[in-house]
Predict the 3D structure of the following.
Amino acid sequence: MRIGELAERAGTTTRTLRYYEKRGLLPARRDAHGHRDYDERDLKLLRQIRTLRDFGFDLEETRPFVECLRAGHPEGDSCPASLAVYRRKLAELDALIGELRAVRATVGAQLARAERARDRLAAEAAVPGGLAPGCELGGNQ
Amino acid sequence: MRIGELAERAGTTTRTLRYYEKRGLLPARRDAHGHRDYDERDLKLLRQIRTLRDFGFDLEETRPFVECLRAGHPEGDSCPASLAVYRRKLAELDALIGELRAVRATVGAQLARAERARDRLAAEAAVPGGLAPGCELGGNQ
DNA sequence: CCTTGCCCTGACGCCGACGTCAAGGCGTAC
DNA sequence: GTACGCCTTGACGTCGGCGTCAGGGCAAGG
């Protein structure tokens, strides 16, 4: 099949396929007209790439999976190099999730603090006698 | 103080300060020589920006905090616009963390599956007579 | 005098994964 | 003939947040 058909069947674009070829990830044979010629195996390789990319893998990280398939293995993750990428990715994800949760906690605490400060000021404004005007906390002279 | 000193005191670079100025985030007065002239308040604004950026806020998202401080409020998050950014960021973080955990679960499952497949093949190779070659996949108990 | 050290502006480089033109070739259909 | 649709290569644009020159100024110190 030609590039347009492969792109459509994989839910991507011709530009992407040419890019993958330039990166050496998905080389294509050529027909008599110089047009790229792909087969079902290429579709399988491409789907492997896209699946991993959907998970946030870099293009380079998909390479071991593609080479594993091309070597004749039934799955892209049938090779040790692919498993190593999985493990590295899991470690990355765990680290990132940990950082994000820490940030989330900090930002959440900041929001809570800021809201308390706001409510305190609002309460003082609503009930001017509630706190002495000279109270230092408000800062409002 | 001049740009070099401010950069050093805030733990950033002069390039960054010029960039913030160009973005209209941290305008600077000029002295007789045309050199940027900052004061302690600018340092406070800058620290607010850097803190938020360390949390992963975009530069534009820090603007409400900076303007809030510049308007005379004691904290950058003393204004409703800042609180809105906090809330938006929390929602973003929650969504992102959720996605990442889903990806983590999927990748973890893929790794486990691939490792089982590998171990199964290794066991078959180690004990060639242990299972009949015609044994159906996955049915080896 | 020259060097050192700070400052200035302007502009290109970088990262990743493509999008989007520009300009042209070839085959088929009208 | 010519319009259409697919293909080709090449090259620039995108996004954010700067890094890194290039080229020049101004003041103090030796």
